[in-house]
Write a structure and sequence with these properties.
335 residues; four-stranded antiparallel sheet; single chain; 29% strand; globular; 25% helix
Length: 335
C-alpha cells in the first residue's frame, strides 16, 4: 500500500515513496560527491531503523506458512449488534485475497474470504475487506464512514426473515492501529508520510486555495486504513456460471440497493462490477447477489443535497456525475 523505492540514473539517485494516489520524490542525490554519499547512506540507515508501519508493514494482517500451506490472519475487534466495538480482538483466517490490490494507484482494496477458525479456512463464511478510506478530517467526516454505514445496515436488517434479500452484515472491524513509542495510533496517511511531508503539502494547499486553483493534487488527502469483516462471504461477479445466474445476482443487488435506501436512508453512489458479490449456497449451488463497498455512500438525512462530486467508477457514472452537476442525486444516478 506504501512502497519505498530508488531511481538511479548514472550517479544521480532519487528516493521515491509510492502511495495509494501519488508518488513523492526527493531532489537528485549525486552519489559521485561526498555529500551525496552521506545523504544516501543516512537515508538507507533511517529506512532500516524507522518504525515498521512507516515501511508499510501492517501488524494485524499477517501471512503464515505451515504444513497445510499458506494462510493469512486478520485481527480486529468484534462489533456488537449495537454497533459498538468489543474490547477483545478476534482473529480471522483466510487462504488469501480474492480481491487483490494489484494496481499502482487507488484505494488498494483487498477482499479476503475468511473463517473464524483455522480448521474452517477452506469453507469461509465471512468476507474481510481491507482498504484505505479517504474522508474529511475531524468530526465532519465521521458520518461518511463506511463502518458507520454498515452498522446501520446491520441494525436494520439483522434477523430479517427473507433469505432472498442479501445485505452485508458487519461482524468485526475498525481502523487499523499500530504501536509506537507514544502508544497506539491509527495507520493514516499523516502517520505514514510523517509531519514534515504532511506540513509541506498543507502549506501548498493553503497557497493553492488562496490562488483559487484546483486543489485535487495540491494536498495529501486524509486516508485511514480500515478493516471490515462482514457476512455473507461472496465471490467476484465473474464467477457466475450462466446468464441466468448473472440476472439473479444483479436483480438481488438492485433490490438490496433499494431496500437499503428505503430503510437506512443510504445512497450507495459507487455501483460497479467490483462492488457486487456472488453468494453461492454450499448446499445446492443456488446464487444470490450482495451489494458491498459503501465507501462513497451518503446518508440521505445528512448529505442529500446538491453535491458536485464525481463519485464512483468513470464508466459506470450517471450523466449528472460525469458533469459534476449540482442537482440532487437519487437512486437513478446509481444505476
Amino acid at each position: 500500500m506504501f512502497t519505498w523505492g530508488l531511481t538511479v540514473c548514472d550517479s544521480l539517485v532519487r528516493a521515491c515513496l509510492f502511495g495509494p494516489d501519488r508518488v513523492l520524490s526527493s531532489e537528485d542525490i549525486d552519489v559521485a560527491t561526498p555529500g551525496g554519499c552521506r545523504v544516501l547512506v543516512r537515508l538507507l540507515v533511517n529506512l532500516c531503523l524507522c518504525e515498521e508501519s512507516r515501511r508499510g508493514y501492517i501488524p494485524t494482517i499477517q501471512q503464515h506458512e505451515d504444513a497445510d500451506g499458506r494462510h493469512w490472519t486478520i485481527r480486529c475487534n468484534r462489533i456488537g449488534s449495537s454497533g459498538e466495538q468489543e474490547p477483545e480482538m478476534a482473529t480471522f483466517y483466510s487462504r488469501g485475497p480474492a480481491m487483490a490490490a494489484d494496481r499502482n494507484f487507488g484505494r488498494h482494496t483487498r477482499g479476503f474470504p475468511a473463517a473464524e477458525r483455522l480448521e474452517e479456512i477452506d469453507s469461509p463464511t465471512l468476507f474481510a475487506k481491507v482498504a484505505w478510506h479517504y474522508m474529511e478530517r475531524g468530526a465532519a467526516g465521521e458520518h461518511r464512514s463506511e463502518l458507520l454505514h454498515l452498522s446501520r445496515i446491520r441494525k436494520e436488517f439483522e434477523g430479517l426473515a427473507d433469505p432472498d434479500l442479501q445485505v452485508p452484515l458487519l461482524q468485526a472491524g475498525g481502523p487499523v492501529a499500530v504501536s509506537t513509542d507514544g502508544g497506539w495510533q491509527g495507520m493514516t496517511t499523516d502517520a505514514i508520510y510523517g509531519p514534515e511531508i504532511s506540513q509541506a503539502y498543507g502549506e501548498r494547499q493553503d497557497s493553492v486555495i488562496d490562488a483559487d486553483e484546483d486543489t485535487e493534487h495540491a494536498c495529501i488527502p486524509h486516508g485511514q486504513l480500515v478493516v471490515a469483516v462482514m457476512s455473507p462471504c461472496g465471490e467476484a461477479l465473474d464467477s457466475v456460471r450462466s446468464a441466468d445466474e448473472l440476472v439473479v445476482v444483479l436483480a438481488d443487488a438492485m433490490r438490496a440497493h433499494g431496500e437499503i435506501l428505503r430503510r437506512c436512508n443510504l445512497l450507495h453512489r459507487d455501483i460497479s462490477t467490483n462492488n457486487i458479490l456472488v453468494v453461492r449456497s454450499p448446499l445446492d449451488g443456488t446464487v444470490h447477489g450482495v451489494l458491498v463497498n459503501f465507501d462513497c455512500a451518503i446518508s440521505v438525512g445528512v448529505d442529500r443535497k446538491a453535491r458536485p462530486e464525481r463519485n464512483g467508477k468513470l464508466r459506470f457514472m450517471s450523466v449528472l456525475n460525469l458533469e459534476a452537476n449540482w442537482r440532487e442525486r437519487t437512486k437513478i444516478d446509481d444505476w
